[in-house]
């Protein structure tokens, strides 16, 4: 098999290259462990406009993986990453066209940065490479590489949802984006709905349907181990002590409007109102580190959540009880795994999510003899694989309230039954199997003439 070339907007930072710390690096760990590999993308650094012409690809080799990164100028970062990728494509793909703020100028920067990626990657490519491009930042990259004469197999995986064509076409230039996807030999999406939506779009735009489903997973063995070991950490023990045997609910999400956090807080408030027997007893820990803090929508969301948490705590709390423990700092994975294990229920209620790995991590972290209950939104990509969770409509606060009450009063036998039905798929569809399946499909593509 040829050399694997991974391209993504962000490449793991130097400090995370020995030991992957999360995200794509964990998902690709097995795939990157064999043969020679190249990982290309943005360095995370911004440079002044005047340094643009002299910028070079920086190369760092760690074992068998070569990390090749380029810097972006401030205006490239702004137009390509903040505005077009996260201010236009992200909301649109999460069915929130109303939040999208399109300008033609940002689209130009997005296309220019994709062109820059293609030009800087080209000299690093070798015959026989398998090129795997990730996510919405880089939709046009495949075509840009083809235009430069690249003939290797190129695959594309979209980590986020793909909306129905009737919505997607709100994006100016959507037809061109779809036609350029013709450059890819393999296109992977998370769910049947996403693949169907993309293929419908292809059929409207006269492109052969080629979107396929490759659901992503986690590394359940190592996560389960981290969760077991987590119970030894001083911080996890401190949390356990502070609970004093009270029922414990956890929520873990990046601060993002797709994750349904204000709606979740409303659901929790409805739960306290309608099931007052839990007042003074239940503990809900929501861990929500700030992400994309420079984008206006995210700043507003943070204000909304800060306000809601303060209001709920002020209104329902008591001198010896805080209804919501709300953290906006990230928590290291090994502690997170221990926290999940302690939790009697997890609230995973996105309004829309490509997959949602937290749902799978929570299941992996449970003790099968006394597991907690997963409350999961119908609109997470994980939902079709996890029907034994308590599935809820995140827009319905009362439904979240009922699910919380049901979870906290559920008999141990039912909790075990549900977990026993959820667990096999979490162990079967893993990060490793996802990458293997995708790369296998890509390797099967004959070299283009
Ligand atoms: P994300 O939107 O980032 O990913 P998700 O799938 O939930 O969402 O993955 C988040 C990861 O970050 C999880 O491993 C989680 O443990 C970790 N994480 C979240 N909050 C954290 C916190 N407070 N502290 C520490 N770690 C935290 C995108 C798509 C998803 C898709 C993934 C993978 O939006 O739908 O599942 O890519 O394809």
TrEMBL record:
One of its GO terms (molecular function) is alpha,alpha-trehalose-phosphate synthase (UDP-forming) activity. One of its GO terms (biological process) is trehalose biosynthetic process. InterPro entries: Glyco_trans_20. It comes from the Bacteria. Pfam families: Glyco_transf_20. Belongs to the glycosyltransferase 20 family. This is Alpha,alpha-trehalose-phosphate synthase. The lineage of its organism: Bacteria, Pseudomonadati, Pseudomonadota, Alphaproteobacteria, Acetobacterales.
């Amino acid at each position: 098999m040829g050399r694997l070339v991974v391209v993504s907007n962000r490449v793991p930072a130097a400090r995370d290259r020995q030991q992957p710390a999360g995200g794509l690096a964990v998902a690709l760990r097995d795939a990157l462990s064999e043969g020679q590999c190249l990982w290309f993308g943005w360095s995370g650094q911004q440079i002044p406009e005047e340094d643009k012409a002299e910028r070079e690809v920086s190369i760092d080799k760690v074992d068998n993986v070569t990390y090749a990164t380029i810097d972006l100028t401030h205006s490239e970062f702004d137009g390509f990453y903040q505005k077009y990728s996260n201010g236009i494509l992200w909301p649109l793909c999460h069915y929130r066209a109303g939040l999208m703020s399109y300008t033609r100028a940002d689209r130009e920067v997005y296309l220019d940065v994709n062109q820059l990626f293609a030009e800087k990657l080209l000299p690093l490519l070798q015959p026989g490479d398998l090129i795997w491009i990730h996510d919405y930042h880089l939709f046009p990259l495949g075509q840009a590489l083809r235009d430069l004469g690249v003939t290797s197999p190129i695959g594309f995986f979209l980590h986020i949802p793909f909306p129905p064509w009737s919505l997607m076409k709100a994006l100016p230039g959507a037809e061109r984006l779809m036609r350029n996807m013709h450059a890819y030999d393999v296109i992977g999406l998370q769910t049947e709905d996403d693949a169907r939506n993309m293929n419908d779009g292809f059929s409207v735009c006269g492109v052969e349907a080629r979107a396929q489903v490759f659901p992503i997973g986690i590394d359940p063995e190592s996560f389960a181990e981290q969760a077991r070991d987590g119970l030894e950490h001083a911080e996890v023990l401190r949390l356990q002590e502070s609970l004093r045997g009270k029922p414990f609910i956890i929520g873990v999400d990046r601060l993002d409007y797709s994750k349904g956090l204000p709606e979740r807080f409303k659901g929790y408030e409805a739960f306290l109102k309608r099931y007052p027997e839990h007042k003074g007893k239940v503990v809900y820990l929501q861990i929500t580190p700030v992400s994309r803090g420079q984008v206006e929508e995210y700043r507003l969301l943070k204000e909304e959540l800060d306000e809601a948490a303060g209001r709920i705590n002020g209104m329902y709390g008591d001198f010896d009880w805080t209804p919501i423990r709300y953290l906006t700092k990230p928590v290291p994975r090994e502690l997170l795994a221990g926290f999940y294990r302690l939790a009697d229920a997890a609230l995973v209620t996105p309004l829309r999510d490509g997959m949602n790995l937290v749902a799978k991590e929570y299941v992996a972290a449970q003790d099968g003899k006394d597991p907690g209950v997963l409350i999961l939104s119908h609109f997470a990509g994980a939902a079709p694989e996890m029907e034994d969770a308590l599935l809820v409509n995140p827009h319905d606060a009362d439904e979240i309230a009922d699910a919380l009450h049901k979870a906290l009063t559920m008999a141990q036998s039912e909790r075990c039954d549900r977990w026993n039905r959820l667990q096999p798929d979490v162990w079967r569809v893993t990060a490793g199997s996802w990458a293997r399946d995708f790369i296998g499909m890509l390797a099967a593509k004959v070299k283009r003439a």
